[in-house]
Amino acid sequence: MIGRRVVGRSKVMRLLPGRPPVLPGALAMLLMFLAVLTLAAAVAADRAAKGWGEAIADSATLSVIAEEAEIEAQARAALSILRETPGVREVRVMDPAEQRALLAPFLGTGIAFDAASLPLMIAVESDRNVLDAAALDLRLAAEAPGVVFEDHSAWRLPLAMAAARQRNLAVIATGLLGMALAMGTALGVRIDAASVGESVRTLKEIGMSDVDLRRMFLARIGGVLATGIGIGMTVGLIIVGGSDSDQTTTGLAIGFAGWAWALAPFTAGLGLLLGLGAAWIAADRALRAWP
Length: 291
Known about the structure:
This protein is about 65% helix and about 10% strand. By secondary structure, it is α+β, with helices and mostly antiparallel strands. It has a four-stranded antiparallel beta sheet with strand order 2-3-1-4. About 30% of the residues are buried. Mean pLDDT is about 75; it is low at about 1-10 and about 245-250.
């Protein structure tokens, strides 16, 4: 009996008329391409947040905000305190060009500053594991009240939160793309089943089991899905390319690096399994509808 034989993919193509549906393959290609772009953007955002966080983790700034006559005395007091503070590696007075570069990401580059409008700023390099920021704040408040100490913690937290949100959005977006792939694959199987309905009825009448029939639909749809997912992943990887995580301090280049390269094939494998599962369920429902 036919139902007791192993049906290969080449035999499936001969037993069922017509070509496999192209809808699942085209949809899989598009969705996998979008998934690669989504993952690449999430990896880039995470890398940028870590790069910025590491760049400012051991740095701080002191702003001397005082009357013009008191600026020099306040700055000398602050420098003396910093040089006596455990964990402080280096201190230096920032020139106006450095101050403008520091403020540019927040205020833009089109704003004109003159030297008189900028406060005197002192750059501090420290060992965050040794430095007691709270004690330093108290001493500065007592001995140099016109000095404001900024350890950039207010910048690091938003960066970490933004990276976490980007990762969550990437997971949600990839999940939605997977759901769309499953729905499109199921629809393609239903259309395919309707188009070859007479052949399926004939095969059932001569003894082919529903299990073998489901395998036939899976064989028809599996190659289309795998091809579409493979093309979508390849095109996506070509477009985003790869970037060395050490290439820049901020890691702004969109692409994969290190372990992140495994995300694309891992997602492609999950997508293929999800599509095949949806095809199996859709074929089972279609076969149950036939006597």
